[in-house]
Specification:
There is one protein chain. By secondary structure, the protein is of the alpha/beta class. The protein folds into 2 domains: 8-163, 3-Layer(aba) Sandwich (Rossmann fold); 179-348, Glycogen Phosphorylase B (Rossmann fold, 3-Layer(aba) Sandwich). Helix content is 36%, strand content 16%. It has 13 helices and 12 strands. The chain has a 6-stranded parallel β-sheet. It is globular and about 65 Å long. 40% of the residues are buried. The model has no long low-confidence stretch (mean pLDDT 91).
Length: 353
Amino acid sequence: MSIKLELKASFLKLISNHKIRPIHVNMSPKFLILMNQNIGDMIVFSPILRELKLAFPNCNLQVMASQTNKEIAQANPYIDKVIVYKNQWHRLLPQFDFAVELEAKIITKVILMLRIIQPNCILSVSKREGRYGIEPQGVHPYDCYTNVKLNHQRDTCIDILRLLKVNCVNKKYDFFYLEKNRQKSLLFLSTFESKKIIIALNITGSSLEQRISVIDVERILLGLHSKSSNIIIILLHKPEDKKWANELISNDKSSYVFLSYPTESILDVASIVDSVDLVITPDTSIVHMACAFNKPLIAIYKRDMEGFEAWKPKSKCNYVVFSEDFESLNYIDTDTVINKSMELIKTHINKEL
């Protein structure tokens, strides 16, 4: 280990050394929930917000969000205040009864931040990744941790409630959007016949490796249309990818494949997902969004089973297709995507094929 790494490890151990404090919950606790991660994380962690409000109706529930997911937090009626994380956390005064830390890995900056904020008690999910050569269980900077044997991130987060002696009533995800988002999606979808089966195909991944290849998109489009001419396919894409996405729609597909309207907000995306009949998407936040709305879902994952177990879809109407590659979505079985889509349509959608 280099000297620099040893110094960082020593500093981490130093700020992690503190006396464990017991949990005392009053009737009006003040919570700070750290959710300054990605959009998918916030959706997967969403049940804890609802369940805390149900257990403590008079609690003050504040969420530290990121620039990326702040819109989701601001639309959530269970949250009393949204704090946008901008590296200005030192302005928060020691005012919280509980801080809840939801990172799966040890992050020195977060530990230091909570040392300065000084909540009365810090609850944390058990760690999966260490830091500076230190194993995940090598440091314990917080007061209480969730069960290390839990695999899925939703269940790990919900286990925070057990530490507070709260029984979780419902594990379902929440996702809220605004009326203006709903109206936008309804106006867009009203251009299609109501009897049409509308499938949203997400062609955008969190990285190039997480994107369905152009060849496989082509196969999925043609395969779905070959099964039924009553299917309409909406391509979900980032606004900056419009030109590239439009190139996927050749003249022979223009009668059944369409681009979504520009989704300037993640709440626009959510409204579309909530309004269509079925969603096909690679492993992105849209997987968890579809689960929140209990939408029939085909989720496409790379063959990383450890990551899959932590973030797999949680709903009653989904099917997972794995690529043959550990690092990317190359070599997916598009026939399975198509056939399982048809099964979900027949089982869960009250429209004729």
